[in-house]
């Protein structure tokens, strides 16, 4: 469990400290108060770019001097808490540094301590938006099963850009060059394909054990972009050279993957389900992911404006599942009322103007 969370010059928080935290933590306040900023700060205690995928330089308090700093104590069952911290410095506003127990460390090392999962309003369009968002969603979740997944995805993308550049060049590309680039794409793309397939299988086996009511249970299918193994990718790239050169881009590979999501009971694609059903399916995926991510690590769930958007029955079911999940939960809302049933057991802060007051 995270405790003694401090935000220094982070977004609109000049100096905010949250201590005596609980399993359930509620941040309530008006729009623009700085609630999501607290969740974003927590999300930076994990590898990656945080829940807004924003540039680090944008996170420093406007008009402030120096970088930002985020710190927290991670309680241990036996022994002293582990001190986790991440910060930027004035000279390098886009480079983040990490300290664990005071010693310089890496963002990847944070992932060995904490398993962070989040659901934010920005994800509401996940099923209806571009496939690239769903691929990124799969890749972020796949990190829970293979910490190297992100690096394979990045290196595949880099090789893909290089192949596309060669294909769109006026001169015909040398086949030796294509051989070398395709070898890179196969090495990393093969891992991306395997990682996404394993993720979807693992999520589905967890979702299958969830009650089908009151949440809409989603059925997830990984739909590879033409190739479902490294060997098939290798062959498809080789066979597709002439076709891809005519198209001036690579037409098959994991950059064309899809994540198909269907409302399991109604057999309706998630993209055609109601807003509330889509939210409920996202909640189910988030809970399944949180459970698989937390194995051997402390699970932290960040739910931004989720509770108020569910009807009372689903909200009660959400709280029940959260309680059973074992994760530390951070939720935001503009009012306390939707949290009435759990507020008595929760740590509650009123957030306003970039500061937080314990209620
Ligand atoms: N780098 C920054 N420095 C200062 N303020 C910032 C910075 N980045 C964002 N803000 C401010 O933070 C506020 C938004 O905070 P946040 O998104 O946490 O609000 P919220 O409480 O979650 O609100 P809502 O209920 O509307 O989602 C905005 O007023 C925004 O201008």
Automatic annotation (TrEMBL):
Keywords: ATP-binding, Cytoplasm, DNA damage, DNA repair, DNA replication, DNA-binding, Nucleotide-binding, SOS response. PROSITE patterns: RECF_1, RECF_2. InterPro entries: DNA-binding_RecF, DNA-binding_RecF_CS, P-loop_NTPase, RecF/RecN/SMC_N, RecF_2. Its main location: cytoplasm. ATP binds at residues 29-36. It holds the Pfam family SMC_N. Residues 1-330 form the RecF/RecN/SMC N-terminal domain. Belongs to the RecF family. NCBIfam families: recf. HAMAP family: RecF. The RecF protein is involved in DNA metabolism; it is required for DNA replication and normal SOS inducibility. RecF binds preferentially to single-stranded, linear DNA. It also seems to bind ATP. This is DNA replication and repair protein RecF. The lineage of its organism: Bacteria, Pseudomonadati, Pseudomonadota, Alphaproteobacteria, Sphingomonadales.
């Amino acid at each position: 469990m995270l405790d003694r969370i401090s935000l220094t010059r982070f977004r609109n928080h000049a100096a905010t400290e949250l201590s005596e935290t609980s399993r359930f933590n509620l941040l309530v306040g008006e729009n623009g108060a700085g609630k999501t900023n607290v969740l974003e700060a927590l999300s930076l205690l994990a590898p990656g770019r945080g829940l807004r995928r924003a540039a680090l330089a944008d996170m420093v308090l406007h008009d402030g001097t120096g970088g930002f700093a985020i710190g927290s104590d991670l309680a241990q069952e036996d022994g002293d808490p582990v001190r986790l911290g991440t910060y930027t410095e004035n000279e390098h506003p886009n480079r983040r540094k990490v300290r664990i127990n005071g010693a310089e460390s890496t963002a990847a090392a944070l992932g060995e301590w904490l398993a962070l999962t989040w659901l934010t309003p920005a994800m509401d369009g996940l099923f209806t938006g571009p496939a690239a968002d769903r691929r990124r969603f799969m890749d972020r979740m796949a990190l829970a099963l293979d910490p190297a997944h992100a690096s394979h995805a990045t290196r595949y993308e880099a090789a893909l850009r290089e192949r596309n550049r060669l294909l769109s060049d006026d001169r015909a590309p040398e086949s030796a060059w294509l051989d070398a680039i395709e070898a890179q794409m196969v090495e990393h793309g093969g891992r991306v394909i395997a990682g996404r397939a394993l993720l979807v299988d693992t999520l589905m086996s967890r979702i299958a054990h969830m009650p089908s009511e009151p949440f809409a249970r989603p059925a997830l299918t990984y739909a590879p972009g033409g190739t479902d193994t490294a060997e098939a990718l290798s062959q498809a790239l080789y066979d597709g050279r002439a076709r891809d050169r005519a198209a001036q881009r690579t037409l098959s590979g994991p950059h064309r993957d899809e994540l198909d999501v269907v409302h399991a009971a109604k057999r309706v694609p998630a993209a055609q389900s109601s807003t509330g059903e889509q939210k409920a399916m996202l909640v189910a995926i988030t809970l399944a992911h949180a459970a698989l991510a937390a194995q051997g690590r402390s699970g932290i769930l960040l739910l931004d404006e989720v509770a108020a958007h569910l009807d009372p029955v689903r909200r009660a079911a959400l709280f029940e599942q959260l309680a059973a999940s074992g994760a530390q939960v951070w939720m935001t809302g503009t009012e306390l009322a939707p949290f009435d049933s759990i507020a008595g057991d929760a740590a509650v802060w009123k957030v306003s103007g970039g500061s937080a007051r314990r209620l």
